[in-house]
Description:
heterodimer; A: alpha/beta; Rossmann fold; six-stranded mixed β-sheet; four-stranded antiparallel β-sheet; 10 helices; 10 strands; B: mainly alpha; two-stranded antiparallel sheet; 11 helices; 73% helix; 4% strand; globular
Amino acid sequence: MPPLLEVRGLKVAYGGINAVKGIDLDVGAGELVALIGANGAGKTTTLKALAGLLKPAAGSVRYDGHDVTGTPAFELVRRGLALVPEGRGVFARLTVAENLAMGAYIRDDKAAIAADCEHAYATFPRLAERRSQLAGTLSGGEQQMLAIARALMCKPRLLLLDEPSMGLAPIVVQKIFETIRAVAREGVTLLLIEQNARLALQTCDRGYVMESGLITLSGEAKALLDNPDVRRAYLGE
Amino acid sequence: MDIFLQQILNGLLLGSIYALVALGYTMVYGILGLINFAHGDIVMIGALVALSVVTALGTSMPVMLVLLIATATAVAVCVALGLIIERTAYRPLRRAPRLAPLITAIGVSILIQYSAALVWGKQYMSLPEIVKPGKIEFGGAQITTTQAFIFVLACAIMAALLWFVKTSRMGRAMRATEQNPDVAGLMGVDTTRVIAFTFALGASIGAIAGVMVVLYYGQGHYFMGFMVGLKAFTAAVLGGIGNIPGAMLGGLLLGLIESLAAGYMGDITGGVFGSNYRDVYAFIVLVLVLMLRPSGLMGVSSGDRA
């Protein structure tokens, strides 16, 4: 069986810079995969291209057996490919409840949407307390919870997460990663970017290391954790 | 007759029309960050189309039916025009520097004006006397039934729009696209369609406002969109450009300011600024708002816009 997501020779130019210079990457159904690397390595650009926010300059992206290279984001969501963007991207002047409703934009099964909303509130009681508050008034951690909950409202098969721990207190990061593991257990395939390489590799099955627009290492997460180069460059040893 | 109450009524009536036109500016600005200077000319097209239909049908049918057909035709033409403008003039410039679509908007405005001059000529067109309005006494002041109808309809349209934007799926998609088009796309919103819809919605409300202007002044002219547009733009800025309730408030306030100033400034200044200066007050308001509170009465400061 081919992987759920199959990336070959992907090149993406962003603002006149070749941010991604030809990468191969696979994510199998049900896998939890990390893409780690330093600032400016091209991780976010890669994810944006996979989600349809940027058009690749070259290469191909196959998702669920179809060529989706250059397909716009709003069509990919309908096929179950969702992205939680960098900086969360909650709609600051919509309420928490309206943000969740936007997550379910592509669905019209009202009863099931309401049930999924309640499920989200049960997972994140903080959001339930603040459901009629504007999302812009939430703390960073609450916004990240909302962004993840919102992305799950579209019932994704593949969820891309861009730096879920960015700017959050360690205790909140723990909560976010617990949620990520729970989402993975429910059968959602995940590809996530992290600066916190140790946490990412401890959470995920496999990992890719990206450097200056190229993938320089890949393998089982445990093997990467033990790799001396990774330990020196990304784990601060 | 109570002059003060009369001026208030006149101001609210005029203001409700400004408010409807201002909505077209503010909705498009909210979603694209673009001042669509052609919007006043869409209002003009709506007015002239309605005038032509009323003139053609005359008294062959009941008055209400004539007005209904005239309004429906105006709305259809203006929606088509709005969609064509968006598709051909603005969409290719979606990623261009802000100045490019702004200059394009002015060009489109001039193009529509002179196209209208070719179609309808440059003379004033008068509304045939098909409506014989009754008078309504109101605490010493007086308005016609037509005016009352305009005001009630304008308020109903505004209430319906607020409800639509607040509660409907499309309304939520419009607000999401306005705040962050990329993320709206990630939710499955086809933002190109939402933007086109916003233009169509603004144009249809503008068309109805055009019909109201014709009913109010009894005439139309290929250049009328310029002044209506500038005043509605002022109303939108006064309320906070990009803010829908703000445009409504700004329109009503501007109507009141204009009406009261035109009614009283002549006496206050000993006849120096008579009611023939009425168009000046809107622009005094515009200058003051831009100097003192550029974000408008209900606007958010640009800092926390996504």
